Amino acid sequence: VLLHQYQPSAHATCEASTFTDITRYLVELKPTLIATYNAIRAKAPNARIIVVGYPQILGNSGTCAKFSLASGDVTYVNAINTQLNETIQAAAKAAGVEYLDIATASADHGICSGDPWINGMTTILGKAFAVHPFANEEQAVFELLLKKVTAS
Q1: What is the average pLDDT across 17-26?
Q2: pTM score of the predicted model
Q3: What distance in Å separates the CA atoms of residue 62 and residue 113, rounded to the nearest whole number?
Q4: Which of 77, 73, 83 lies closest to 59, judged by CA?
Q5: For the chain, give me the number of helices (H) and strands (E)?
Q6: What are the tens digits of pLDDT across the range 83-96?
Q7: Is 134 helix (H, G, I), strand (E, B) or coil?
Q8: Closest Cα to residue 82, out of 17, 139, 134, 6?
Q9: Where do runs of H (alpha helix) occur along the chain?
Q10: d(CA 5, CA 86)
């Protein structure tokens, strides 16, 4: 679901306050990423460059006390997550670098799932900062990256 195709909800408070800024940010992000990837390529012309996407924050898990949202905001947050990854992937393609999808693997590991890869809104000392990955997410990303690197 692209943000420009997103259907707003009467119960989406995050959307009401952030839609315009996030949409503008994502439009501005793509050329910045392309320039960054090209700068890396210029510094390391023989390097294999793999850009890692973002995991899903909520995915299929929805909302809960760890990440409480208005009912309509779950779809909105997932749409932002999808659009961010599509922007990163499009920039990678334009710059001729590889992209590693993490969103698909993380769909059932949202903050409110039984096996979350991302921490909720409260930092857990020694485990993860607020809304940052747990070690199990980092391990999963490592395994996906290793599989991609060794497959080719």
Answers
A1: 73
A2: 0.84
A3: 8
A4: 77
A5: 4, 2
A6: 999 999 999 999 99
A7: coil
A8: 6
A9: 13-43, 73-95, 103-106, 135-151
A10: 14
